[in-house]
Amino acid sequence: MKNTILICGYGPGISHAVARRFGKAGHPVALIARNVQRLTEAVAELTAEGIQVQAFPADLSDVKAIRRAVTDVREAMGPIGILHWNVFLDIEGDLLSTPPEDLGKSFDLRVVGYITAVQESMDDLAASKGTVLVTSGVMALDDPQINAFAVDYAAIAISGAAQRKATHILAHTLAPHDIHVGEVIVNGFVEGTPGGSGKSNTVSPTDIAEQFWALHTARQVCSVIIGKAVPIAEAGIHG
């Protein structure tokens, strides 16, 4: 049997598409999020599609909760061969209006929680020569047009940039253990989610999931971008 994919930060968009894509390929799927009702509905829907899936409610801003959840997943579903970090805090506001506490919460979630999940899954990932997959957004890139676009999303942009830096350092850190790191940078709002409602240049979550599948199976590229909401230089696409 294939190793479990642990999806941290489950929601109806990207992570649901990833759960379906990897689940249909035979990977047992573990879902972590705070929203119990959303998790219950997801388990029912994915199970009806023939996917082996379980939910593990937890607050991913709490380091102790992450550690407990990873342990629970391992005990219930076996070794974790793929970790998908799909977590962010939806905070709007510029740098003059965003409370410092919110900046800290966003950083803790996107970086501290992320690295905690990797550390707790490390033995399994190393044993299976597994994969760490990370959802990022275009505001994480340093580009004049992107920075102008990100003015009213300061906390998301800054924490996203920190997560991206952590991801690329992590890629070098995990390479000697034969663990591949793959990042998909979403350049646009996600189709079918509240954030994508009424927006143009939306990106299909199914297409994003296919990008994650390609990163996992090919194990060559670390970072790819999908979507065209903000024009950026080709140099900003791969890193």
UniProtKB/TrEMBL annotation:
It comes from Serratia fonticola. InterPro entries: NAD(P)-bd_dom_sf, SDR_fam. One of its GO terms (molecular function) is 2,3-dihydro-2,3-dihydroxybenzoate dehydrogenase activity. Pfam families: adh_short. The keyword Oxidoreductase applies. Keywords: Oxidoreductase. It is an enzyme of class 1 (oxidoreductase). The gene is dhbA_2. This is 2,3-dihydro-2,3-dihydroxybenzoate dehydrogenase.
